[in-house]
Amino acid sequence: MTDAAELRRRTREFLAAYPPAGTARPDFLRARFDAGLAWVHFPEGLGGLGAPRSLQAVVDAELAAAGAPDNDPRRIGIGLGMAAPTILRYGTEEQKRRLLRPLWTGEEVWCQLFSEPGAGSDLAALGTRAVRDGDDWVVNGQKVWTSSAHLARWAILIARTDPDLPKHRGITYFLCDMTDPGVEVRPLRQITGEAEFNEVFLTDVRIPDSLRLGEVGDGWRVAQTTLNNERVAIGGTPVPREGGMIGKVAATWRERPGLRTHDLHQRLLGLWVEAEVARLTGVRLRQQLVAGQPGPEGAGMKLGFARLNQEISGLEVELLGEEGLLYDDWTMRRPELVDFTGRDAGYRYLRSKGNSIEGGTSEILLNIVAERVLGLPAEPRTDKDVAWKDLAR
User: Fold this and answer.
1) Burial annotation 56-75 (CB, 10 A radius, 16+ → b, else e)
2) Which of 21, 181, 269, 355 could bond to 306 as cystine, CB 3.0-4.6 Å?
């Protein structure tokens, strides 16, 4: 069993062989993956050493102390947090070996083709069709709210393969090459002025059966692995104490005493405590991941993340008074990542409105927490056993 001392030794030997100052960033990242130091809990040959997940911190600390480059995880968060764990669990050996390395190094960006104009909260009602044609599947449909589609080489995709079955049972999970003919990406301009989201149109896109993930018709179960990891990735991102958005408001409070009022002080104290509770809960949740795949508990983290971001950004705008009404730049652009702390208060206020929609709406996540975490009675579902083709639309 690899322990902390062994990992520390391996990392130092790796740094001696590939000194960060003298190694090109792409070469360093590829070599790190091949050495099993990318994500140590993955199997050997796939970027890991089969070590406990908790020991990743040992590797990261050694690399950070040496000034080693990282893989820009915010830019490739969908690949790291959603695609990779799903491919690892359900992918073939060929799929794992072809896809995981460039995913981790950031050479191939991933996006998620799940939500549709008529299937957002009710994702299982999706209508994008995949029809078998020999060794291929021909896919037609539309996806929406697709982060990073304008940058992505690959997508995780769920499509309906059997409309005669109830909606949860006729879905299959695919890996889609975004450079294939028939894939069209259009920007969706948001309230922030930017278009980090996209809508994606799929017209007679041919996906080889070798890029199917899991069994035919088992896509909903495969997708649960993706969704559970997504909620942890969004709501459970590690931050230091007073990090993230609460840190921006606290800094303004300390630096500009003339803005303070008693009411704002009480609200700031309450949100500071809630942010710290959320941070510590995230630490606990990540510790639980050592024992296996994330479960429905991540829905609670994502719920709290959305509510806190919206309340904190609202408080910040009020604290700044007239300044809070200003906005730095309405230029239409298609960014590579969402930068909550690198922009002004107006951006944070507007962008946080999407937090309760993306990654699962808060209303749906409340149901998940109620039913799967607290064990409360399930909400009545009249369409549970109805064939998808017979559902009212």
Assistant:
1) bebbeebbeebebeebeeeb
2) 355
230 is catalytic: yes
- What confidence tens digit (pLDDT) does each residue in 329-350 have? 889 999 988 888 888 999 999 9
Q: Is the pTM of this model over 0.85?
A: yes
SS (H, E, C) 173-208: EEEEECCCCCEEEEEECCCCCCCCEEEEEEEEEEEE
The pLDDT tens digits for 72-128 are 998 999 999 999 999 999 999 999 999 999 999 999 999 999 999 989 888 999 999
Helix (H) or strand (E) holding 38: none
Tell me: pLDDT of 292 over 70.
Answer: no
Beta partners for 176? 155
Q: At what angle do helices 219-235 and 297-320 cross, to 10 degrees?
A: 40
CA distance 287 to 336: 29
Given 194, 196, 199, 230, the catalytic residue: 230
If we measure between CA atoms, which residue out of 276, 274, 269 comes closest to residue 243? 276
Sign of the Cα torsion 262, 268, 269, 274 reads: positive
Start-to-end CA distance of the chain, whole Å, equals 54
The strand ranges marked E within the chain are: 110-113, 129-133, 136-143, 154-160, 171-177, 183-188, 197-208, 212-213
The two three-digit tokens of residue 55, written as one number:
């020991």
